[in-house]
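User: Please predict the structure of the protein below. I'd like the answer in structure-token form so I can feed it into my own downstream comparison script.

Assistant: Understood. Taking the following sequence of 337 residues as input:
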Amino acid sequence: MPPPSPTSFICILLFFSTISSSYAAATAPRFKEAPEFYNSPNCSHDAVHIAMALDVTYLRGSMAAILSVLQHSSCPENVFFHFVSAASQPSSASILNLSISTSFPYLKFRIYPFDDLTVAGLISSSIRTALDCPLNYARNYLPNLLPPSVRKVVYLDSDLVLVDDIAELAATPMSSDEVLAAPEYCNANFTTYFTPTFWSNPSLSLTFAGRRKPCYFNTGVMVIDLERWRAGDYTRKIEEWMELQKRIRIYELGSLPPFLLVFAGNIAPVDHKWNQHGLGGDNFRGLCRDLHPGPVSLLHWSGKGKPWVRLDANRPCPLDALWAPYDLLQTPFALDA
């Protein structure tokens, strides 16, 4: 019997790809259509650009986040979403596009393919497997993915909801030498984000010399000046730290430490109300947590526990009830009001 031709192999691959795509589409979650929101009379024509990483696993959280942004925006028609999805999963991109278009038929958005397989080679294992997903590192490449006409963007994680106008966050002022704006948490023990190997190395431990006090900040909510990022080639600077991490273990916590190494001590401050983070508990058990003292504009379930998972398991934390009204999942027995 003659060996199969290259054309036969291609046909077989296409067949299995079609089967895989059909299965993914059949098993993908279905979502309700969200109401349409309109600009208030005093809106300008200035766009508010928002970037999010998007995948099927966290799609339910992303849909809730999108709804919350629009619902609390004074100018929702000015909001433009830039979604980044894994280039290695084109069938998932189709599902994501269909889900968003169906639930938000009026939404202005674009999906960008992210070369996740190439970035995977730079990633070192961390304390939680979920943190090692290449899509977690997509925020490092936003200035390269988004068009040059987009000068500033608000980056948001998928496990959060807003209860205030995103335009206020997007308008955060930055000085001429600042590339990022985010809430800082200077009470956190900054030294714990890096290993003893890092701090015992004289050349590495001087990384933060000359900066004002370096503090922890959560990369799930950031305002990014893309023009300044591109001009400073900060993507490459982050990659250099990731490459060093492959040779010397200098941190344990996924995609956050390279951001701290490059930016900590030189970011524009943002009020803590814009990232009430940690509602998902720690990275190991995901236990319930309370809100931090003070006002709230954004609720962020960073940590292991996600509100939709806990709600489905009938083991919700008290604050998960604040996420539930934004859940667009279409359950088999759901009845429209």
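That's the full token string. The first helix runs from residue 6 to 27.
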